[in-house]
Amino acid sequence: MNNIFKPIALTLCFMLCGIYAQAQTNQQEFSSKWNTMKTYTMEILEAMPEDKLDFKPVDDVMTFREMILHIAGANIMMTNNFLKEGDAGVDMEKKDMTKAELKEAVEKSFDFVAETCASLTESELAEEVEVFGGNMITRRQVENLIDTHGVHHRGNLIVYLRLNGIDPPAFRAW
């Protein structure tokens, strides 16, 4: 009886090892979602006409252009401050970017986050870093912080589009 179970157990073990080896890691899943969010952000930017980039619903909030710049700038700032320092190749000091320049800044900021995250080792991702208000979180949590920040402001941008009678691109999160 033992002779029958041994080959079955070994076969199951090899099958499970094969399945496990094919499963996505958290970093692969983050990367896939991040690339989707890049595309979605670009679609939102594309939907707003150039002559409406300075629209804001009330005086005390950011314009559409400022919100796009804020997303790109925060991607770069949080990556540099909390993940790993690098050069995104974007001049975030220029506040009057054209739509084409905004697209380039957004693309570069998302690519910078993606490349930086892909370069981090598992041990680096597990390291805690100090973020806003002295809070200590892991670099893996920082990835989610950057993502959540973008989700929040993309929601604002959807409202800006709708207030201008523009149907936003369909939402997706994967």
Question: Can you walk me through this structure?
Answer:
The structure is a single chain. The N and C termini lie far apart (48 Å). It contains six helices and two strands. With 174 residues, the protein is mainly α. Strand 1 and strand 2 form a beta hairpin. The longest helix is centred in the last third of the chain and has 25 residues. About 9% of the residues have low confidence. The protein has a two-stranded antiparallel sheet with strand order 1-2. 66% of the residues lie in helices and 3% in strands.
| Helix/strand/pairing category | mainly alpha
Provide the low-confidence segments as ranges.
9-24
Computed over alpha carbons, the radius of gyration is 21 Å
Helix share, percent: 55-70%
**Structure summary, number of beta strands:** 2
Number of separate helices: 6
How do the helices and strands follow one another from N- to C-terminus?
HHHHHEEH
What sort of overall outline do the alpha carbons produce when their principal axes are compared? globular
Physical arrangement of strands within the biggest beta sheet: 1-2
Please report the distance between the alpha carbons of the first and last residues. Answer: 48 Å
Strand content: under 5%
Major sheet summary line: 2 strands, antiparallel
What value does the average pLDDT take?
89
